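sry for the spam today, last one i promise. struct tokens for design, 237 residues
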């Protein structure tokens, strides 16, 4: 695997649907380049948890108010060695990966006021990380197209539905959660449909993003390619 000893300068925008390996490679890229790391998907999951804890399922009009209010209770730790998402001071990383949040997050994420509030928060975190650390790797579904459209490197990871479902199953089992292939595959397809057809910031690759198919690539393979890209762009010194 290629290794860099340089420090990242600027923003790497990592987009793509679930199960493409964004989180793993983004964290490893940030660690390899001594950069900050931000998982924007965890932010959407955390406010979805707040909605569920309020006794709502994410489809009611009241859910949008609860979700927007919860943005003020979020804290994102951007250290790639120990990333965390806090909701009102509580570490909710494990809970936001459960089936309940996974089933409701697309609906909550589609709310315009929610996306507006979180994009503002994300931009502030990115600006702070660049100012204090020099660079940041940001992963999500609209980073290159909406959150940081002027990022010097935009990468869109993709993979087939079957491969992504298999990866999700492996993650669930590793975390001790039950995983049924048919159910996971159906959920992957459902989230793809919802994320790509929502009116506000639909999932798609930015026109200038580099699309990388990870079907037959290991995490090390993808990381090697990303390290090559940041070096070729002159983003590490």
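last one done:
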């Amino acid at each position: 695997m290629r290794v860099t000893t340089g420090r990242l300068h600027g923003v790497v925008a990592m987009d793509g649907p679930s199960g493409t390996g964004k989180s793993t490679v983004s964290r490893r890229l940030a660690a390899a380049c001594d950069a900050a790391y931000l998982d924007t998907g965890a932010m959407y999951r955390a406010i979805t948890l707040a909605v569920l804890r309020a006794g709502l399922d994410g489809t009611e009009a009241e859910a949008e108010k609860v979700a927007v209010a919860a943005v003020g209770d979020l804290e994102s730790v951007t250290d790639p060695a120990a990333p965390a998402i806090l909701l009102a001071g509580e570490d909710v990383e494990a809970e936001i990966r459960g089936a309940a949040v996974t089933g409701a997050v697309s609906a909550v994420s589609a709310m315009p006021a929610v996306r507006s509030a979180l994009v503002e928060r994300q931009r502030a975190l990115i600006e702070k990380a660049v100012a204090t650390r020099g660079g940041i790797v940001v992963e999500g579904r609209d980073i290159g197209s909406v959150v940081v459209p002027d990022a010097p490197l935009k990468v869109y990871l993709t993979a087939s539905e079957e491969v992504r479902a298999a990866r999700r199953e492996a993650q669930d089992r590793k975390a001790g959660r039950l995983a049924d292939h048919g159910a996971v595959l159906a959920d992957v397809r459902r989230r793809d449909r919802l994320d790509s057809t929502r009116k506000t910031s639909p999932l798609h690759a930015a026109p200038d993003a580099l699309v990388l198919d990870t079907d037959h690539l290991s995490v090390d393979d993808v990381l090697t390619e990303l390290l090559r890209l940041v070096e070729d762009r002159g983003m590490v010194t």
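The mean pLDDT is 91. ok im logging off now
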